[in-house]
Amino acid sequence: MLLKTTMLTNTYHGWGALDSLPQLVEPFHVKTILLIIDPFLKNNDLFEKLMLLLAPYEVVIFDQITTEPTLEQAESLVKFAKNSNCDLVVGLGGGSVLDVAKLVAVLVTHEGNVVEYLNLSGHKKLKDKGIPKIIIPTTSGTGSEVTNISVLSLEGSKDVVSHDYLLADIAILDPKLTVTVPPKVTAATGIDALTHAIESYLSVNSNPITEGLALHAIFLITRSLSDVVFNGSNKAARIDLSYGSYLAGLSFFNAGVGGVHALAYPLGGQYGISHGESNALLLPYVLNYIRSSCIDKLRDIYVAMGFEIGSNDNEQVSKWCIKAIEDLITDIGIPNTLQAFDIPESGLVKLAEDAIKQTRLLARSPMELSFEDILNIYQNAWKGM
Questions:
Q1: SS3 161
Q2: 109-159, pLDDT tens digit by residue?
Q3: Which of 151, 261, 266 is CA-nearest to residue 197?
Q4: What are the CA-CA distances from residue 42 to residues 21, 39, 63, 64, 222 (Å)?
Q5: What is the pLDDT of residue 1?
Q6: How many CB atoms lie within 10 A of CB 211?
Q7: Which domains does the chain have, with CATH numbers?
Q8: What is the sign of the dihedral through the CA atoms of 357, 358, 363 and 365?
Q9: Backbone phi and psi for residue 34, each to the nearest 5 degrees, phi listed first
Q10: To 5 degrees, how large is the angle CA 266–CA 267–CA 269?
Q11: What are 122-128's contacts with CB under 8 Å, separation 24+?
C-alpha cells in the first residue's frame, strides 16, 4: 500500500529564532507587509521588537481577531488585505490569528467570498497559493504553523478552508515567545496539542511516520505541561512544550484528528468555549467511549506518558491511560463537565446535531460514531461520568 506523508513548510526553530526574521523576509523582495497580530500583543515588548525587525518595510497592522475567529471577521480581513496592496503576510499570535493569516494570504488573490471556499458548504476551489506568508506562533498548542487548514466559527458550529496552498512558506518556532503566556491559556493550548497528538495516533489514517511524531509529541507535552502551567518561566519545559506542539501538528496534518474535535467544534460555535478547553473537556469522555476500538494504542500512549505497565494486560492499561489524561487535565485547572461551562442539558441534542455534520473529522475515528453515540458522549460529559 502506498502512503503519503507531507512536510512542506520550512521551519526555523530554537530559542530566540525570531531574531532571524529580517533575513527570512529579504528573499521575498517585498515592499508592504500585512502584520496580523493578537490584539493584546500590541501593548508589549514583543510588538516593539517585531516592528524593529520589520523596520525596512511598510507594515500594515490588523489586530482585530478574536479567540474563535468568525466567518464575518475573515471576510472583513480579506477585503482589508486586498485594499492594503500587501505582498507578504506575517501572522504572529495564537492559533486563531495564524489560521486567519494563512487564509488571507491565499484569498487575497482570489475572487468571491470566504464562504464560497468552506469545506462543508462552499463550491469554489482555490487556484493558487496567493502571496507569501510567514507564520510565528506565540502559544504551544494549535500546530497551525505547519498545517493546511483554517478554522472559522459559524452560527452553531465551525467549518474550515483546507488546501496545501494554506501551508506557510516559513514558520518560525521560537519557544521564547511563549514565556509570558498566562497559565490558563498555556493549559488550554497545551491540551489542544496533546489532543492533536492522541487523535492523530488513533486515527484510521495514521502510519508509522505520523505515529512516531505523535508518540514523541505526547512524551514532550505530558512531561512539561504541568511544569509550564505552574512556572511559566521554566525554559526547558517551554522548549519541550513548543516542540511537542509542533510535532503534534505535523502528525495531525497528515493523519487527521477525529471524534474529540468533531464534538468540540459545536462547543465553540454555540457557547464560545475556547477550542483548547473544548478539547480538554471532551478528550477523556470520547476516549472512554471508543476505548474498545483502540486498547493497544492507548497502552502505547500510556507508555509515552512515562508510565510503567509491568505485566498488566492492555485492557487494564487502557483504562489507566484515560485516567492519567483526566488527572492531567484536572491538575492544570480545566473543568471536566459541560455543566461547569453553564451548558444546559436541554442543549445537548443541538450539540449532537451539529457534531454529526463534521463528517471529515468523524471519518477518522477508530470507532464509527452515530448520532446516538455522540449524544451519549455529550450526556456523559454533562453528568460527569
A1: strand
A2: 999 999 999 988 888 999 999 999 999 999 998 899 999 999 898 876 788
A3: 261
A4: 18, 6, 8, 11, 31
A5: 66
A6: 18
A7: 10-178 (3.40.50.1970), 183-383 (1.20.1090.10)
A8: negative
A9: -90, 115
A10: 60
A11: 122/161, 126/161, 126/163, 126/165, 128/165
